[in-house]
Design goal:
Length: 97
């Protein structure tokens, strides 16, 4: 797919971007999530400085990303352990035949 030019508004600033067509919807949704989070922080903490709000958003999403990475690692380890156990059981079964 080709690239298209879009404009994304984040924290009342417009950013012109060139993106792959298949990424456009994801980028627009990400911008909406950021703007929604900014609005939430404005209401919760009465913060008006856009830089502070953006920093809070970055911290929130970076933390979420790191938590997701850890969860995937733990799940991968658990799956690998189960596969190892299953392989061991099968090896014992076939060695007795």
């Amino acid at each position: 797919m080709g690239e298209i030019s879009i404009k994304i508004n984040i924290a009342d600033r417009v950013y012109p971007l060139k993106v792959n067509m298949e990424e456009e919807e994801i980028i627009r949704r990400a911008a909406k999530l950021i703007n929604d989070r900014i609005k939430e922080y404005q209401e919760l903490y009465a913060v008006r400085d856009k830089q502070d709000l953006l920093s809070m958003c970055v911290l929130h999403y970076a933390t979420s990303s790191l938590k997701a990475d850890v969860k995937v690692q733990v799940e991968d380890t658990e799956v690998a352990e189960k596969v190892y156990q299953l392989d061991h059981i099968l090896a014992e079964f076939f060695s007795k035949q």
